Request: fold
Amino acid sequence: MRGSKKQEKRPIAADPKYGSVQLAKFINYVMERGKKTVARAIVYGALENIAESASAKGVDASSGAKGGQGGKKDALKVFEEAVRNVAPQVEVRSRRVGGANYQVPMPVSSSRQHALTFRWIIDAARNKKGLPMAKKLAQVLLDASNNTGDAMKKRDDVHRMAEANKAFAHFARFAK
Reply:
């Protein structure tokens, strides 16, 4: 309808276990067919696997936290670092100018950065074979926090595509 207001985004409640809004949003992306309990179990299992691998390497001992709280913090830090590393800065969008379609590089908004990042991380985990989803997700998150893996490859491909089409950046003014 003409002149109607844009719908406001509802705030997402922070994750009950880790207290992170970003993690709560990630759980929503992992969720399939409304099964949030299953999605939480997968994500929490992945974070526990990350915490175990960190404590096996001796990272947890350096934090000096009691009661396993240090493992939680380390796992959340790995998750946040993975999201930060995979987030794309630019992407190409198709623009029709003068009867021709051009791939125009454009900056990515922060909400779209998170959406693409979560999608790429989950796709990379789902494409791995032979392990439970929690373990696959833990591997992908650890790889992404170390700037390696399929999710990082996807981000690099998008950046490479934007770099290759930098000549069409002046068409960005025709963006909607």
